[in-house]
Amino acid sequence: MKVYISADMEGVTGVTHPQDVIPGRPRYERFRHLLTADVNAAIEGAAEAGATEFVVNEAHDGMRNVVLEDLDERAELIIGDMKSLVMMEGFEGADAVFFVGYHARAGTSDVLSHTFDNPAVVTDVELNGEPCSEARMNATLAGLQGIPVGLVTGDDLTCEEAGILVPWRPDRAGQDRRGPLLRPMPAPEVGPRTHPGGRARRVQSRSVRAL
Amino acid sequence: MSSPEAFAPYEPEPPYTFTVEFATASTAAGVMYFPGLERPDDRHVSWTHEDYAVAYKMFIGVMRMSRSDPDYG
Hints:
The structure holds two protein chains of two kinds.
Chain A: E1 2-7, H1 28-48, E2 53-58, E3 75-79, E4 96-100, E5 122-127, E6 130-131, H2 134-143, E7 149-152, H3 156-162, E8 208-210
Parallel strand pairs in A: 1-2, 1-4, 2-3, 3-8, 4-7
Antiparallel strand pairs in A: 5-6
Chain B: E1 16-22, H1 25-29, E2 38-41, E3 44-49, H2 52-65
Antiparallel strand pairs in B: 1-3, 2-3
């Protein structure tokens, strides 16, 4: 069983502010580790369910956020933003797609909500007349090739939005939203399983595609 | 996730129409280079295609082209 993970960052454990997710900002380096840990937790859960192949596609900003040396060594990583399918590059052939670290669509009252571009530029997106989040547009791309969504992680509104995409309702949000930038942080069900520092890995054995 | 068979893919019916709302008319004007794009009003652009992958890539292209106005006001 092959699992494909599209890894965004605004919905990662503990993220509450643009300073957490913009490369070069003081808190960004810390949250790269939490992103990697969220991805690893998803891989671990999928492996326990029987998945044997894992492809992780960077899906946030310049798409160079995952800490390679901390990433589960079973995973292949697709790095960079010169990808024709961007957030969904390399999804073909998967048995299920996971959306890790996702967020609600532009114009909603949610942590770092947006749809692809800066919310000050793109204020709304619809698909066939209905509100369209990144999760919806990406789920459609996979779904029309027969690939279901197996996991969505993010805060409560993100999971609520994703409810229309899947026959099962996401029953656990990583965090509650209380406003556009502030929220409490209960212990996430899908959360870091490794310490931010990780342990040394043999990166030369890792399968990495740079685009 | 015990089995992918327990989950159904999300498969909306064609044709597929994307509509993007921009904050400014100038941003909407600035993406109107792709064949098939329509501009129903000052701040919206839309396109329709039977093949979702084509419509999706058009979305990526429109996003790549879009740019905000310089700060003013």
